[in-house]
Amino acid sequence: NAGVTQTPKFQVLKTGQSMTLQCAQDMNHNSMYWYRQDPGMGLRLIYYSASEGTTDKGEVPNGYNVSRLNKREFSLRLESAAPSQTSVYFCASSTQTSGETQYFGPGTRLLVL
Amino acid sequence: AQSVTQLDSQVPVFEEAPVELRCNYSSSVSVYLFWYVQYPNQGLQLLLKYLSGSTLVESINGFEAEFNKSQTSFHLRKPSVHISDTAEYFCAVSEPTGRRALTFGSGTRLQVQP
Predict the structure, then answer these.
(1) Cα–Cα distance for residue pair B25/A49, rounded to 1 Å
(2) Does any CB of chain A come closer than 8 Å to the CB of residue B11?
(3) What are B4-38's pLDDT values in tens digits?
């Protein structure tokens, strides 16, 4: 039981390049989330998916797109990376029950030059 | 809209001393409250949470937090810290309905010194 996995662990991009961050969970959770973590700002929600086939914007969605490929996988795409997107990205999942614990992946560290 | 304020960005403390990490929140509706811990180069793990019932909640490793509705606070305490408690601690809230995503505070780095 791997929980929440993320790939890659680390990535360096040049401004304008694109990339997709992958996330998968094996806990049969309905809800999945993408957060970014920046120093002194905690974690901020980028996008979330309440169930397969649905996605919705969070607090900081600009510059990102997401795809809920199936119940297990939720990817985050940067179409044209900018230095402001340098951050650590975390994927999380939970059941849809109110108050349920969110389980986090190990994170992807992204540097945009 | 809801927000979370963690008043201390860093808390240095000596081993075996008590510690309190402060958290205040604001929300127009009732919320669920969480403390997550992040060890170096890892993802976040749930430490404890308050949903309803007893206002004092405890974790398995000796931390406790008390929900105070009148002061809109959810401070985290431990009577005696260990070196292994060195980590960053995040307070978070979520609404009981809707998307249930977490709103995080900015984090408090607990540095336990020998």
Answers:
(1) 25
(2) no
(3) 999 999 999 999 999 999 999 998 778 899 999 99
